[in-house]
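tokens incoming
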């Protein structure tokens, strides 16, 4: 008897036509019937009919038409994240059991930097592509804030970056490895300013410091007289090589390239300050496609072995 009651409860669905919600989601995101037609491969009359039917079901107007397109109403803004969550759950369930093997093809879209790929992840990509040769990749620069919004819309798969940035955008994270930020400089630059491999905080603040994030320096209690903010670690390194200033740089990146330029670039210690530590993570919305999950799981294991 209890089993029958449980079955009845699980089958208590409304008379839901998912095509109505699909039309709603796409029109909400595109704001234009012409764009929705292309994505849904339906004509405007059919999409409009779906929207009107859904409006009748929920008892609210969902869009207001104007010359430039469709404007979602407050009711539409209210139900959009709830409907999106339901649809995502269905997709996630399908992807969770969908077989993915060597012959499967897919595209993984990630937000990261060329520096991370070149100096940290390149070996893993080779390993992954040997197992899954039909997978393609698209890389997007982390310097572009709009990419984090695309992640939120599930148009990109995940980001590989520092934990505090991912948390800022409300992403869930999976730890890859721990990293520290150090200071680096060219020997010529230090000689020019009469400095050694260990300098005082006061001397450091008089110099130009080059890095990606000024708040990281402030956490150390350092407020440089002049700061050059860059969008990539490559730019930091090149500016340091050109004797522009002291670089605030990732230790693991430096370990990967210092042998090549060890006669020219060195690590600099600032008296009384410990290195600033972070977790380098994979950040995502909580949903990963099957191929993305395989990639991330493998990457976690690879990083555990490589940076143990």
């Amino acid at each position: 008897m209890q089993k029958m009651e449980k079955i009845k409860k699980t089958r208590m669905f409304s008379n839901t036509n998912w095509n109505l919600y699909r039309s709603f989601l796409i029109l909400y995101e595109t704001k234009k019937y012409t764009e929705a037609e292309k994505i849904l491969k339906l004509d405007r009359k059919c999409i409009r009919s779906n929207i009107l039917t859904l409006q009748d079901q929920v008892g609210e107007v969902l869009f207001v038409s104007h010359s430039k397109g469709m404007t979602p109403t407050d009711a539409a803004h209210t139900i959009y994240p709830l409907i999106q969550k339901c649809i995502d759950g269905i997709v996630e369930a399908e992807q969770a059991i969908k077989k993915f093997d060597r012959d499967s093809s897919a595209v993984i879209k990630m937000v990261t930097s060329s520096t991370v790929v070149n100096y940290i992840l390149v070996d893993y990509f080779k390993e992954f592509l040997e197992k899954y040769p039909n997978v393609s990749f698209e890389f997007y620069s982390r310097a572009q804030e709009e990419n984090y919004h695309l992640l939120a819309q599930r148009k990109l798969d995940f980001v590989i970056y520092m934990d505090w940035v991912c948390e800022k955008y409300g992403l869930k994270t999976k730890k890859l490895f721990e990293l520290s930020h150090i200071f680096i400089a060219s020997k010529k630059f230090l000689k020019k300013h009469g400095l050694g491999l260990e300098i005082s905080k006061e001397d450091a603040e008089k110099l130009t410091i080059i890095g990606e994030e000024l708040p990281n320096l402030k956490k150390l209690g350092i407020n440089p007289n002049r700061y050059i903010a860059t969008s990539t670690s490559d730019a930091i390194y090149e500016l340091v090589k050109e004797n522009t200033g002291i670089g605030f740089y990732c230790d693991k990146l430096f370990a990967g390239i210092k042998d090549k330029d060890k006669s020219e670039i060195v690590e600099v210690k600032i008296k009384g300050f410990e290195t600033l530590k972070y977790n380098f993570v994979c950040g995502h919305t909580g949903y990963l496609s099957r191929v993305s999950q395989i990639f991330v799981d493998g990457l976690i294991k690879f990083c555990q072995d490589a940076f143990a």
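note: The first strand starts at residue 63 and ends at 66.
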